[in-house]
Specification:
Ribosomal Protein S5, domain 2; single chain; elongated; two-stranded antiparallel sheet; four-stranded mixed sheet
């Protein structure tokens, strides 16, 4: 699911800022952007976030800012001195008068970097609380989106059931048309008097049995009922299970279409397939 959560909390003379963004994904894909001061906490953070987020592409950014809202930086004294010494030596060698290296040195690599001062236990505790708050906001967004998705999924399943109910009155008409077509073909190509009527009836029954869709309709209704049952239960992880059920629904709809031999039934099948495609699109957003 697509969601976002942000939180911040003061930690002494600075504040920790945490942002969490999530996108749809079948699996958990966790990406962390951390300051150096949290490198030793990375494994804990990964484990904790995986347990909470379960699925999705998750991007987590944790940073520390000063009271003015900017990042906290420190000058690398050792690197600054080495650059200054080398530049002074080159300046003397070339006979340059009163060179000003200050602004140039500050732009060189590794001279100015984000503060990597180790966190105290109190600062780490505050960071954990801020992380919990950001996660709560993400989960709140997920739940809001989940309610909307659940409503739409239920609507599409009921549409499939409605279209299937419309097939019932069309079935008898289909059987009559198939029987009449076979009889007409018999009269046209073989002549009625040359055919054993009992054998003809047996062939008609055999053919009608092959295109009978009663079992497919029963299984389709069962799959739809099972889908709605799983959709309504309190289980957290249900996306994969619903996806598997939707595949079974698709198989039964395809078989209905293959056995239809009726333009009116085919129209209902097309509408059921359309509803199923919308279900599959929504299931990509379900944890």
């Amino acid at each position: 699911m697509t969601s976002y959560g942000r939180s911040s909390a003061p930690t002494g003379d600075k504040q920790v800022v945490i942002e969490i963004k999530t996108l749809n994904s079948k699996f958990i894909d966790l990406r962390l952007k951390l300051p150096a001061s949290l490198n030793d906490k990375e494994m804990w953070l990964r484990k904790h976030l995986q347990e909470k987020m379960l699925r999705g592409k998750v991007e987590v950014v944790i940073g520390f800012q000063n009271q003015e809202g900017g990042e906290t930086y420190e000058i690398n004294h050792s690197a600054f001195k080495q650059y200054h010494t080398q530049l002074t030596s080159i300046s003397d060698e070339l006979g340059l008068a009163n060179p000003d290296f200050l602004s140039s040195i500050l732009r060189l690599p590794d001279v100015v970097a984000s503060s990597d001062e180790a966190l105290s236990e109190e600062e780490w505790s505050i960071t954990q609380e801020a992380l919990t708050l950001a996660l709560d906001k993400v989960q709140h967004h997920r739940k809001e989106e989940g309610v909307s998705i659940e409503t739409d999924l239920s609507k599409q399943i009921h549409l499939i059931l409605e279209y299937m109910a419309k097939i019932d009155p069309l079935e008898q008409d289909r059987v009559s048309k198939v029987r009449q077509r076979m009889s007409n073909n018999l009269d046209e190509y073989l002549k009625r008097e040359n055919v054993d009527e009992n054998r003809f009836e047996q062939e008609v029954l055999f053919y009608l049995e092959k295109i009978d869709i009663t079992e497919e309709k029963v299984r389709l209704r069962q799959h739809c009922d099972y889908f709605l049952q799983e959709l309504g239960n309190a289980e957290i992880l249900k996306g994969r299970k619903l996806n598997f059920i939707s595949q079974e629904i698709g198989r039964e709809i395809n078989t209905l279409g293959a056995k239809a031999y009726s333009s009116e039934i085919q129209k209902c099948v097309v509408l059921m397939k359309d509803a199923l495609e919308k279900i599959k699109e929504q299931l990509a957003n379900v944890v």
